From TrEMBL:
Pfam families: Nucleotid_trans (PF03407). The keyword Transmembrane applies. Keywords: Coiled coil, Membrane, Transferase, Transmembrane, Transmembrane helix. InterPro entries: Nucl-diP-sugar_transferase, RRA1/2/3. This is Nucleotide-diphospho-sugar transferase. GO terms for molecular function: glycosyltransferase activity. The chain crosses the membrane at residues 16-34.
Length: 429
């Protein structure tokens, strides 16, 4: 019994020790979790929460201020980037255009094939014919809607005779208008370079066109001489071609005896009358240059042709024709050169180092149908058979007494006065 009691007492002591140990552990835990005691913990947590809320509110305000500043900075950066982006796009466009032009220059043959058709094989000997007739441009009425409406009324089969005139040439213009009406030509248009010609055209019931004001053109047009006015046509005619019309340019010192449109071939970009006075000078010849000091190689063969006349020519509405006008107009704007000389230089000079020639097809008009005054007064009037021929036009380009000779041409070819041409010298006094 005594042993059993001792065991019971030891067990009780152990339990008490365990209980004390557990109590100590719980106290330590509570002292950590509730340092201010059980009854002060609510107010303490409220204070902590308030502090946390105030800190959070202050942080929100700070973030809001920082966000506003950040937005301003982003907007500024976006504006700068947009400007730089626009500059880069411009540079890209410029570089793209340069590449396009370079490709156009180096790959022109391939592009021409794409425009004119598929590649073809050469046929048998003697059957191969190259293309001379370039495709016409797509009409663009936006370049001049007012002129487009006028040409719709006046032109015939998309072709028009165009004459530039100011008051200095009114007597010759009157004689030309009479010849136009006599032949029955309907598609005839005068570009009036001053108010006097505008009124004159209205009185004669002739179609005319008055361009929009242009100081560079108006100064020359109103007071310029024959050569100065003649140079303007290369600027004026461009819009006609852009609108898709074939243009027959005529100076005022020309008498019309037949309708010229029935005598054109229309197989080339440029079809022009010649300043030549016989078959060789008008259509070309092999001219041998002799240099005796070269001995065995003293003879050098050259090709010669007298110039195309820039006072009467037909242009098809093609890119080479428009390029011709642009080249001549540009050259004349930079120098005081004669327009006819520049016209022929652009037509005939070939490509060579440092220069790209104009790739325009050309045809010379029949010199007896489209007759210059040298042919008439030096040859035709003295030949019984040639006097029987009736030309399409006579251009009094070789003689300064233009009006008197124009009147004589009308007397000879229209009124049948056989000696009307006899009193004039071959050349000029």
């Amino acid at each position: 019994m005594a042993g059993r009691k001792d065991k019971i007492q030891k067990l009780r002591g152990s339990r008490i020790a365990i209980a004390i140990l557990v109590g100590i552990l719980i106290g330590c835990v509570c002292s950590v979790l509730f340092p201010n005691g059980f009854f002060n913990s609510g107010s303490s947590s409220l204070i902590v929460n308030e502090e946390r809320l105030s800190k959070s509110t202050s942080k929100v305000g700070l973030v809001s201020c920082e966000s506003s500043e950040r937005v301003k900075m982003l907007k500024s950066d976006f504006s700068i980037i947009s400007v730089k982006n626009a500059e880069l796009r411009k540079q890209v466009r410029e570089l793209t255009e340069k590449v396009r032009l370079a490709e156009q220059g180096t790959d022109n043959a391939r592009k021409q094939v794409l425009v004119l058709g598929s590649e073809i094989k050469a046929g048998p000997f003697g059957t191969v014919k190259s293309l001379r007739t370039n495709p016409t441009v797509v009409p663009d009425e936006s370049v001049n809607p007012r002129l487009a409406k006028l040409l719709e009324k006046v032109a015939v089969n998309k072709e028009i005779i165009v004459v530039l005139a100011n008051s200095n040439v009114k007597p010759m213009l009157e004689l030309q208008i009479a010849s136009i009406k006599r032949v029955g030509i309907q598609n005839y248009l005068i570009v009036a370079l001053d108010d006097s010609i505008e009124s004159f055209c209205e009185s004669k019931e002739v179609a005319y066109y008055k361009r929009d004001p242009d100081k560079a053109v108006d100064m020359v047009g109103k007071s310029g001489g024959n050569h100065a006015v003649s140079g303007l046509k290369f600027r004026v005619l461009r819009e006609f071609l852009q609108l898709g019309y074939g243009v027959l340019l005529s100076d005022v010192d020309i008498v019309f005896l037949q309708n010229p449109f029935g005598h054109l071939y229309r197989d080339s970009d440029v079809e022009s009358m010649s300043d030549g006075h016989d078959n060789m000078t008008a259509y070309g010849f092999n001219d041998v240059f002799d240099e005796p000091s070269m001995g065995w190689a003293r003879y050098a063969h050259t090709m010669r042709i007298w110039v195309f006349n820039s006072g009467f020519f037909y242009l098809r509405p093609t890119l080479p024709s428009i390029e011709l006008l642009d080249r001549v107009a540009d050259t004349l704007s930079k120098s005081e050169a004669w327009d006819q000389a520049v016209f022929n230089e652009q037509l005939f000079y070939p490509s060579h180092p440092g220069y790209t020639g104009l790739h325009a097809s050309k045809r010379v008009m029949d010199m007896y149908e489209f007759m210059n005054s040298k042919v008439l007064f030096k040859t035709v009037r003295k030949n019984h058979e040639l006097k029987k021929l009736k030309p399409v036009i006579v251009h009094l380009n070789y003689h300064p007494d233009k009006l008197e000779r124009m009147q004589a041409v009308v007397e000879f070819y229209v009124n049948g006065k056989q000696d009307a041409l006899d009193s004039f010298p071959d050349g000029s006094d």
